[in-house]
Each structure stands twice: as C-alpha cells, then as structure tokens.
C-alpha cells in the first residue's frame, strides 16, 4: 500500500509492506514475528484512515476494525457449536491450541481454518483474512439439515447438511473464508460478472489451499474439485464444482446437472443466483486451471500469486467484468514474472475460454 499512488487509503511507510511480506515468508521466527507486528500496525493505520475517509464502501471494513478493537497476533481460531439452532455464534467448543474434540465437524473446521491461515501467511505473506491477524471464528452444526456453509462477515458458518454430507470440507471452508479476503481487498459486487469473479476467487483459493495441504501438489495432479465427495452417497455427483471441467461435477435427478459453462459461448444470462454468480464462475475457473497447469508446478506459487496480486490491484473495479479482470491478471503476471512465459500462458488461458485480452 505504501508504494501505490492513488490507493484508496494510501499511507507513507519507511519500509514498504512487500518487503515485510518477504520477511514473513522467508525469515526466522523472530524476524517473522516483528514483521507481522509491523504489518499489523500498518494495516491498522490504513484501516483507520479508511474510517476517517468514510467512503460508503468502507463501512464493513470500519465495522470490522472497531469490533476487533485491538491489533491481534498470530493464528487465533475459535469454533462454536450452534447445537442445530440458527443462533449465532453458539457455545465455544474448541479454541486455539485446544486438543481435538472427536466431533468431526468441529475438528475439521478447526483444521480447515488453520490450513487456510497457513497458506495465506506462508505463501502470500497475508496475516489472516483482514491482513492484520484478526481472529477466525467458525460455527458448526448450524440449523437443522442445513445444506450450506456461509460467511456472514464475522463467522464462517457450516450446516450439517442433508443432501450434502460433509460441509466442513477444506475447499468449502477456504472458499468461504476467502470471501472475507475479497471483501477487504476488492469488494467485488456480488452480482453478474463481478459477482462471478468474487465466487471465482473463492474457488481458486479453495482448490489451491487443498493442493497446498496435499504437499504442494503439482497442478497437473490436482483434482480441481470444490467439495469433492461432498454429496450424500445416493446422489450422482463427485463435487459441487469442477474447475478443470466446469459442468461435470454432478448430474443427478434430484439435484440436476452442474450448470457451469466452461466458455463464454455458454455464458448464462439469468436473474437467479444474483445473475449467475455460482454458474458463470465456471468460465474464469477454467481459465485459472489452464493457466496453472500451463505454468506447471504448485499452482499456489505462481498462478495464485498472480491472481492474488490482481485481487489487490487498485485498478480492479468493484463492478469489474471478466475481460477487465483477465487484463489485470496479464499485467500482474508481467509484473511478477517479467523474465518468464507466465504472462503469455495466462493470456492464452483466457483466450481458450473465449476472453481475448486487448490493451
Ligand atoms: Zn494497498
Ligand atoms: Zn461463495
């Protein structure tokens, strides 16, 4: 934020944050701790400045900061149990450092939050969702037969499911938590193409964090599924969505066929689903898959860093369309990897799903 002119909440720093993030990534425990502390304070200042500027878009952010009160430190997970009610947040059932409880939902949510936190910190140098070490709260056993998981701006909430069996799946948890990151960084409006991009970014990190946990899997070896094995046994479906082959995740009489297009030719115009945000996200999802496999290696190292830089790019409008997002991934690929083929691989990945990048 220090080095960018025209950033929404610019402040002027002696040590720029990208340096601090390098320290967090590469430093020993002590160096890391102090760099994190500095980044936290920087971000607090940035957010306080945001509050003073009081742009309408910053209200959620401002509310988050005042709710947190003080700057927090490292990983701080709290899992609540709603006891199958719809009261949030319910009782604390596991807090940071406590041993496993034996309740699968509780322990999986705890681990999922931990893996997500670790990926963002270790690979991207981001300290928690808000970038300032804010605590992570999840609620499990929400509602009765509740077939969903959601992020409400404060809590990551998981139902026990009815048709869905296993909502605390890691890709789902990371997907939801990443909505918290997008809210802070880009505020992509949850409608039509900008909404599909919001969904897309959550799917990208959902899959990439799973690949990270699988030993920094090679992109070509990954399953690229969101919610693999999440459907009840009698349902014909392998996942909620497939990033490599959108439209192939399920085909069952009860739940229907996966409606995701894999190319702009199949773009769905609808008023449902906020203008198809969970549908048309298949198009950028496949572009990311093509970029990551084209670049090779662990997708979380290069492709996801390009996408993360795009999410943080001040030129990304809250109403961004696919084409604008694609152009910014191309520009950020050049910035991050000026010597390599990455930018051209990114460009052809978008072209393959029907999005031509033109400057
Ligand atoms: Zn910034
Ligand atoms: Zn989502």
Features:
359 residues, two-stranded antiparallel sheet, five-stranded mixed beta sheet, 44% helix, 9 strands, Metalloprotease_M4, binds zinc ion, 3 domains, protease, Elastase, domain 1, alpha/beta, EC 3.4.24.-, Neutral Protease, domain 2
- Annotated CATH homologous superfamily of the largest domain: Neutral Protease Domain 2
| Strand coverage percent | 5-15%
Which of globular, elongated, flat, extended, rod-shaped describes the shape? globular
CATH architecture descriptor name of the largest domain: Orthogonal Bundle
Structure summary, number of beta strands: 9
Assign the CATH class of the largest domain.
Mainly Alpha
Count of structural domains: 3
Mean pLDDT: 84
What does the main sheet amount to? 5 strands, mixed
Query: What is Rg?
Result: 20 Å
SS field, number of helical segments: 11
Q: Output the structural class.
A: alpha/beta
- What small molecules accompany the polymer chains? zinc ion
Order of helices and strands: HHHEEHEEEHHEEEEHHHHH
- By CATH, the topology of the largest domain is Neutral Protease, domain 2
* Helix fraction bin: 40-55%
The end-to-end distance, rounded to whole angstroms, is 25 Å
User: Runs with pLDDT <50, length 5+?
Assistant: 1-20, 48-71
**Which strand order does the major sheet show?**
2-1-3-5-4
